[in-house]
Design brief:
This protein has 76 residues and is mainly beta. The chain is 0% helix and 46% strand. The site of zinc ion has 8 residues, from loops.
């Protein structure tokens, strides 16, 4: 069995909800941008992705990452 050491900056791993196998990358992504800024006047953009499990073929939706954009720049 392989043990994967994830870099600290790496986003959390996506697991198949059906069989628990790790799924590397979404085959499709899209952004959803919040229409209103938060208290610090930042806009949050959420990147969603459609994943397909390489093991069982299950297709599922997940959050790839969230990006906050404000006057001070982009915060990942
Ligand atoms: Zn699966």
């Amino acid at each position: 069995m392989l043990v994967a050491y994830m870099p600290k900056t790496q986003t959390r791993q996506t697991l198949c909800p059906e069989c628990g196998a790790p799924v590397k990358e979404p085959y499709k992504t899209w952004e959803l941008i919040a229409p209103f800024p938060d208290k610090k006047m930042r806009i949050t953009a959420t990147i969603f992705g459609m994943y397909e499990c390489p093991k069982c073929g299950e297709k599922f939706k997940g959050v790839v990452s969230k990006v906050k954009m404000g006057s001070e720049g982009i915060e990942l």
